[in-house]
Amino acid sequence: MSSDAVKKITFRVQRFDPEKDRKPHFQEFIVPVKRGTTVLEGLLYIKENLDSSLAFRTSCRMGVCGSCGMLINEYPHLACHTQLEEFHADRLTLKPLPNMPIIKDLVPRLETLFEHHKSVKPYIIRGDNAEMEKPTAGYIQKPHELDEFLQFTYCIKCGLCIAACPTSASDLAFLGPQALGQAYRYCADSRDEGQDQRYQIVEKDHAVWNCHFAAACSEACPKGVDPALAIQLLRKGVAAKALRVKKTTAPALLATSLPQAKPKIDVPEFTVKQK
Ligand code: FES
Fold first, then answer.
1. Is 122 found in the same domain as 104?
2. Residue 49 in contact with ligand 1 by CB distance below 6 A
């Protein structure tokens, strides 16, 4: 398709208004699209020109905020990150993310995702409480220590991994790939001392041992995060704790505990010299 050619695509959108409808139904809209048009732009066209009552979430429109997750032709995608050309089709079916209650149309209720995320203590835990309360310096972290968990920091909490997960589909209490991935992200952080607290949470029922390792979460993640890998590594940590295998590395030191080397930077000629 040339950049300015316009094609018509049928959007078959699941509608559900809990105040009016007893169950979801589908409604079709014809949307003009050009090369590069995203699914989100198609939905915005519907809202602005055809039916202003259509409900969906969006904010950043650039794959960062995680608001616009939905099922597009039965697979979880970010609507803003998905171009219509990818489907090579004249019809698209749009549904809200599964494994979550629906608020309206394409808007799922995400509270459980955030509660599960919060439950795994997704923050640095240290024994030095005074430093945590009133930080005086950063903690030292080497590049290879950052590499241990960096990819897991890219999670945008869009819920696509949960929508793809067969265990989340059959067990609503399952912590899910997002929360378990973030539990590992903090356990693997060399600045953190909260592994034991998190292991106690994830070794309970509906958590790390309930994953069937379908790895659908990792395939669906739009940011390249691999929650299935995180869950396997988390299992390794929980098992090591049960076997009383001690961690051999000490937690990261405060930057103030290192001798401060002065950076060697030549002062450019034009700089006014300080007396
Ligand atoms: S609108 Fe922010 S990720 Fe799609």
1. no
2. no
Mean pLDDT, residues 240-259? 77
pLDDT digits (tens, 9 = 90+) for 119-147: 999 999 999 888 888 888 889 999 999 99
Last-in-domain residue among 108, 130, 148? 108
**Judgement on whether residues 118 and 90 belong to the same structural domain of the protein:** no
In angstroms, what is the span from residue 268 Cα to ligand 1's centroid?
Answer: 44
Closest atom of ligand 1 to CA, residue 78: 4
What total of structural domains would you count in the chain?
Answer: 2
Same domain, 131 and 75: no
Residues 11 and 90 in one domain: yes
Question: Which domain range does residue 27 map to?
Answer: 7-108
Amino acid identity of residue 274, one-letter, is Q
Q: Is the pTM above the cut of 0.85?
A: yes
Q: Distance between CA atoms of 38 and 182, rounded to whole angstroms?
A: 29
Pocket test residue of 43, 60, 160 for ligand 1, highest count of atoms within 8 A of CB: 60
Is 63 touching ligand 1 by the criterion CB < 6 Å? yes
CATH number for the domain spanning 98: value is 3.10.20.30
DSSP H or E run through 32: strand 25-33
Same domain, 223 and 135: yes
- Spacing, Cα 254 to ligand 1 middle (Å): 36
**Phi, psi torsion values for 38, nearest 5 degrees:** -95, 165
DSSP β-ladder status, 102-104 and 91-95: unpaired
Atom number in ligand 1 closest to CA 156: 3
